[in-house]
Specification:
The structure is a single chain. With about 240 residues, this protein is mainly β. It has one domain. It is built from 3 helices and 17 strands. The strands form 4 sheets. It has a 6-stranded mixed sheet with strand order 1-10-9-8-7-3, covered by helices on one side. Strands 2-17-16-15 form a 4-stranded antiparallel sheet. A hairpin with a 7-residue loop joins β12 and β13. The longest helix has 9 residues. The radius of gyration is 18 Å and the shape is globular.
Length: about 240
């Protein structure tokens, strides 16, 4: 169901315009690639790592019920996300999440409803040429905002399972020069999945190493409490650029 919705809603979401779109992050592609191997880290490792400073909090122009975003190919108009619960099935609109300065890409989330269930996808919109790249999610909701490596060659992101506590997926995408019409092309590189903990945050230690602030939910005095731990992993060199 989710894959079909990605296809249906990714090709016709900008008013009156056909926008080239690629979808990356499919599980079967990750399955054929090396997995991330995590080792125990410390809170000091996490604090020393590079925190995300590449995401610019911009506010797009709003015109009526639409978001207006300028690109090198002109202005694009997106239906603004509506929180109204009485709309029934169909496309609900877009949320604007910021701007990846390093890659020159806007971050958006598309929202839609099918059979009364909500679905969303994270989409990167190229500010230079207006092309889109959707990052597929293993669940119903969109993945978290991807974090670029210091040199911009990789993007790391995660998805915490909604219906299962202490479970997550972590994906790393490689950033390549694209072929027309895409200025940048993303491709699957490494991944990891566990049912032992969820992700609070990801940071880059250097251009090929990430550190995770992870947590497990435990009941304390009848309330869920986050217990934190830290892990790091180096990207596999088997499929290096």
């Amino acid at each position: 169901m989710k894959l079909m919705l990605i296809f249906l809603f990714s090709i016709n979401l900008v008013y009156g315009q056909s926008i080239p779109n690629l979808t990356v992050g499919y599980g079967d592609r990750y399955d054929s690639l090396p997995k991330l191997v995590f080792n125990t880290a410390t809170i000091e490792d996490y604090r020393k790592a590079i925190s995300s400073n590449n995401i610019v909090n911009k506010t797009p122009t709003v015109e009526g019920k639409n978001l207006l975003i300028q690109t090198g190919k002109g202005e694009l108009k997106f239906k603004k996300y509506s929180f109204s619960a009485d709309q029934g099935d169909g496309f609900r609109g877009w949320e604007y999440k910021g701007y990846l300065r390093q890659l020159k890409m806007h971050i958006l989330v598309s929202n839609h409803v099918s059979e009364s269930l909500g679905f969303s996808d994270l989409v990167l919109l190229d500010s230079v040429n207006g092309t889109q790249q959707t990052i597929a999610s293993i669940g119903d909701a969109a993945v978290e905002i991807p974090i670029p490596s210091p040199n911009g060659y990789f993007l790391a992101y995660y998805y915490n399972q909604v219906y299962t506590s202490n479970s997550c997926f972590i994906g790393v995408l490689a950033v390549h020069s694209g072929k027309a019409p895409f200025r940048i092309k993303l491709s699957e590189y490494n991944s990891f999945e566990t049912d032992n903990w969820a992700v609070e945050n990801i940071r880059w230690v250097d251009n090929t190493t990430i550190v995770i602030k992870a947590y497990t939910l435990k009941k304390i005095d009848n309330e869920n409490s986050k217990q934190f731990a830290y892990y790091n992993a180096r990207l596999s060199q088997e499929n290096a650029k």
